[in-house]
Amino acid sequence: MIIGLTSFTGAGKTTVTDYLVSKDFEYYSLSDILRQKLKSRQKEVTRENLQAVGNELRREHGNSVLADKTLERIEQDTGKDAGGGKDFAVDSIRNPAEIEALRKNKDFTLVFIDAPIKLRFERTKARKREKDPTTFKDFKKSEEKELQSKDSSNQQLLRCREMADFVIHNDSTLETLYKKIDELLEGLR
Questions:
Q1: Do the domain assignments include residue 15?
Q2: Residues in the chain with pLDDT < 50?
Q3: pLDDT number for residue 79
Q4: The whole model's pTM is what?
Q5: Which of 39, 37, 22, 46 minimizes the C-alpha distance to 174?
């Protein structure tokens, strides 16, 4: 199976991904392609630069480019079509066209991780990444750029949430979150 993960900032997508990896899922991130592109251009890997280069690539090569390249990587790494008995976690899905491309694989399921905005802000502050917003006002302003856009090549997180097969609310303990993931996996198997 391929579990695609998307979320608003600080909802717990990385925590879910780490848990899936602990369950022997192989991990791929659409953002890895962007990080490689920034490094080849000798640009700093910041959230803003990742967004800019992602939007640029989608405009130049189509909105599904990151998903298409990730599926190619999965096929190259496994030596066969995505699947073949292995399970995959794919994160950093931020555009509806990426979802549509990944859905071409019958084993794909999109999961949106959600949490209240104030809790997400507190989590973001706690992780202490250098470029993360430090005020709630700045956090909300930063998030607004990712939610929707008239430009289809930009991030469209609200639309991604609407397209999700499942929404997991991560507003409690890690134990509760892991239980929700286990129940989801059991249902999908």
A1: yes
A2: none
A3: 61
A4: 0.85
A5: 22
Is 18 a domain residue? yes
Task: Count Cβ atoms below 10 Å from residue 186 Cβ, excluding itself.
Answer: 8
* Strand order, beta sheet including 2-7: 26-29, 88-91, 2-7, 108-114, 166-169
Q: 93 by DSSP, 3-state: which?
A: coil
**Phi, psi values for residue 74, rounded to 5°:** -60, -45
Q: List helix spans (H) across the chain.
A: 13-22, 30-40, 47-61, 65-78, 96-102, 117-127, 136-147, 157-163, 174-188
User: Does residue 189 fall inside a structural domain?
Assistant: no
Q: Beta-carbon neighbour count of residue 118 at 10 Å?
A: 11
Q: What is the pLDDT of residues 169-178, one digit of tens each?
A: 999 999 999 9
Place of tokens 């104030």: 118
**What is the distance of C-alpha 187 from the center of its chain?**
21
In this structure, the number of other CB atoms found within 10 A of the CB of residue 168 comes to 22
CATH number, domain of 24, equals: 3.40.50.300
- In angstroms, the CA 140 to CA 59 distance is 26
For residue 60 the two structure tokens come to 């130049």
